[in-house]
Amino acid sequence: MQSETGNTYAVRAAVGTAVAGLVSTAHHLYGAIAYDTPWRLIVSLWIPGFVLIVLSALYLCRRRVGTRVGSIALWIFFLGAVVFQFGFTLFECVYSHVLKNTLYYGGASEEFLLRLFPPPAYHLPDNLLFEFTGLLQLIGLLAVWWSYQFVRGHYRSAQVPRFPFKATSASGRKQTSPES
Questions:
Q1: Other Cβ atoms closer than 10 A to 16
Q2: pLDDT single digits (tens) 109-148
Q3: Which of 36, 60, 68, 132 lies at a 20 to 30 A Cα distance from 106?
Q4: Residue 168: inside a domain, yes or no?
């Protein structure tokens, strides 16, 4: 049985992940069109698939609690919704938009900005919608927090094995290590 807090974090994690994915997809799709950068189009195409994998893992880990499938799904969810999303948001939002806009509007020299944000991968702020949706990707950090809180609570419960694989012999009996 899931706790009320666990259910709350699961719902928040699912909604946060979906919203972060939608915002990032829209941002990269708009950037691909506005700046004629096909690589942004590719990013906008794989994000929905990634979100589906993460949400499927969340569903499985909640439906298959205490099983190997549920445990593996929890690890997949953790790696996707917490580890990957955190890194993606740090780079794609915090570095590429928060830092860039802070330095640009804070008066940093163009030479310095172009060293940190070289064209054609980056553009100095010249498109309000692109920069706004880039900054809006900060929702990814909220999704990470909610996902982490869900995993933490789910993992701490006695229902979840500590590692997704238990050593078993060919006969299916649990093997013990020499230290046991």
A1: 22
A2: 999 999 999 998 899 999 999 999 999 999 999 999 999 9
A3: 36
A4: no
Here the tokens at position 3 are: 């706790």
Domain count, the chain: 1
How is residue 55 annotated by DSSP?
H
Q: What is the pTM of this model?
A: 0.81
The 10 Å Cβ neighbour count of residue 146 is: 22
Residues 36-73: pLDDT tens digits?
999 999 999 999 999 999 999 999 999 998 889 998 99
77, part of any domain: yes
Cβ density class 38-64: b for 16+ within 10 Å, e for less: eebeebbeebeebbeebbebbebbbee
Between 173 and 81, residue with greater pLDDT: 81
Please classify residue 104 by burial: count the beta carbons closer than 10 Å to its beta carbon, then call 0-12 exposed, 13-18 middle and 19+ buried: middle
> Is 16 part of a structural domain of the chain?
yes
Task: Supply angle C-alpha 19, 12, 131, rounded to 5.
Answer: 30
